[in-house]
Design a protein that fits this description.
Blueprint: H1 2-21, H2 30-58, H3 66-91, E1 94-103, E2 108-118, E3 121-124, E4 135-136, H4 137-161, H5 180-189, E5 193-194, E6 203-205, E7 208-210, E8 219-220, E9 225-233, E10 237-241, E11 248-252, E12 268-277
Parallel strand pairs: 3-10, 5-8
Antiparallel strand pairs: 1-2, 1-9, 2-3, 2-4, 6-7, 9-12, 10-11
Helix pairs in contact: 1-2, 2-3, 2-4, 3-4, 4-5
Length: 297
């Protein structure tokens, strides 16, 4: 996650500079941002897999306990977004589309949409996006950190439920300090601006609302949103459905007669700008355990 956060900082600083000085240019490295974010998502998915499979191998006697059943059910809910993102990327022709959003009040954020390709048609993946077609990186990194932290919490609760066996000697253990504090501080420093309709409410501890609790809250800016989407694709004739139901557009590329059987020589990048989105009422989501606009089933 450390590298992904650094890459996101570099990308967003570069884009803000371009928007202020040369708004018609686009030289920031969106590919590096997508790769770094996907790498972080894969790491979270691998952590989930460790807890799911390796714990059963290390402690086979806990599988039939009620504590393990609760742990397994909660783990599936927590890990679902990252497992889905990684599996769809690897096996189902699904990829990240970088998005940017500017609000009337001057707030700005970047994010992504998971796009699925079916033949020559690409659209936001309905398996991943349930309510909203775009997720901000501000929300995604907070959700990612929240997932890792809460999996550790429920794993600790599972271990604490295991009865001590007085017949065996105590194991020698070591304390390993994980870098949660440093990453939490980095995430808290990130903007809390979300995409239209996207909101993670402040974390609540009992009756107390903690505005900066855990990884913090996210909410949209004020007024209309002007959005830009960066589509990378391979093919001669592509039809794309824009996020938020903003119509369809396509790209047709022709070559000299007789060259139709020649392999297509390039990837193409298409920038779609000035997509106007009216304010969207944000659904209420718990801060933990359920991801923003993702499939929970």
């Amino acid at each position: 996650m450390t590298r992904a956060l650094k890459v996101a900082d570099v990308y967003e600083e570069a884009r803000r500079c371009e928007i202020e000085t040369k708004p018609e240019t686009f030289t920031a490295n969106a590919d590096d941002l997508k790769d770094a974010f996907l790498e972080a998502a894969y790491r979270v998915a691998e952590l989930n897999e460790f807890y799911e499979k390796d714990l059963r191998a290390y402690f086979p006697h806990i599988q039939k306990t009620e504590a393990y059943k609760r742990f397994s059910a909660e783990l599936k809910i927590l890990s679902r977004p990252w497992d889905l993102l990684c599996n769809r990327s690897k096996h189902n022709h699904t990829y990240l589309v970088v998005a940017e959003c500017s609000y009337e009040d001057g707030k700005w954020c970047s994010g992504f949409s998971m796009y699925h390709r079916d033949g020559e048609f690409v659209a936001a993946d309905p398996r991943f996006h349930k309510n909203l077609d775009v997720m901000s990186f501000n929300a995604a990194f907070r959700l990612m950190f929240d997932t890792v932290l809460h999996i550790d919490i429920i794993a600790a609760a599972l271990f604490n439920s295991i009865e001590e066996d007085e017949a065996v000697s105590a194991l020698e253990t070591y304390i390993v300090f994980l870098p949660y504090e440093a990453e939490l501080n980095r995430i808290l420093e990130h903007s809390r601006v979300g995409m239209p309709g996207e909101e993670i409410p402040p974390f609540k501890f009992g009756s107390q609302t903690l505005e900066a609790g855990l990884s913090g809250s996210v909410s949209p800016g004020k007024g209309m949103a002007s959005m830009r989407f960066i589509f990378d694709f391979y093919g001669r004739d592509i039809k794309v459905r824009a996020p938020y139901g903003k119509g369809e557009f396509g790209s047709q590329i022709t070559f000299p007669e007789g060259s139709s059987r020649v392999p297509f020589p390039m990837y193409l990048r298409m920038l779609i700008s000035d997509v106007l989105i009216e304010p969207i009422d944000a659904p209420v989501y718990p801060f933990t355990n359920v991801s923003l606009s993702l499939d929970e089933a």
